[in-house]
């Protein structure tokens, strides 16, 4: 008779274990959220509370998936046709692997149409020439910052082309170049660190490509120079604050305008 030993039951990691893991590595999105609201960070990354995706996030994910496929095809020097891009968009829209979406009546078809109109505008205007081969597409990278007393920095670069780091965003309103550069500084500086650590050279610049969801969709490209020493210092100081806050388990609410769209507002109101 064969006796098969049962696998030991899987135990959920303790809060201390989760926090220890978060202290070992950080991404731009985690760092930005921590600095925006430590309690929201706690709900999302420590308690790991699950929430339905917003329609805007679902649209953004579908658009991002198509741009990823489009750029990978350019890297293989086998550019996609608009029909192939549309087929990829249809498949990405139907993908619910990352969670369900809270749709209102009639909202899904409108949002789906909006997403494709954004992509169609972007691709037809040739913001990414099909004949220019990217340096890298959707590449996961990390940088060991231990010598600075900091955690490993991790991230995924959407696109690197001609030594320019390019990131995609969908937006409901036209971005202001100066404000966008400031509000996205943690992300862009993180990308610069990751690029330099993995190539041994400096980036030629950073671009934010906003696909703006207006009645007549438009594309706004914000060009930024390579990261300055001052920006690197700011990022490292922000990472130090992240480590200090995690060490002290300093998870407190930060009420403000951003609360209006927060998925954890009910949980936050119960905090004491």
How do you describe this structure in short?
By secondary structure, the protein is of the alpha/beta class. It is 46% helix and 16% strand.
Measured distance between first and last alpha carbons: 57 Å
Largest sheet: 6 strands, mixed
Mean of all residue-level pLDDT scores: 93
How do the SSEs run, as a string of H and E? Answer: HEHHHHHEEEHHEEHH
Shape: globular
Tell me the fraction of residues in β-strands, as a range: 15-25%
How many strands in all? 6
CATH architecture of the domain at 55-239: Alpha-Beta Complex
In the predicted model, the low-confidence regions spanning at least 5 consecutive residues are none
CATH topology-level fold name of the domain at 55-239:
Lambda Exonuclease, Chain A
Estimate the helix proportion, in percent: 40-55%
Number of helices: 10
CATH level 1 name of the domain at 55-239: Alpha Beta
Structural class: alpha/beta
Q: Which radius of gyration do the C-alpha atoms yield?
A: 21 Å
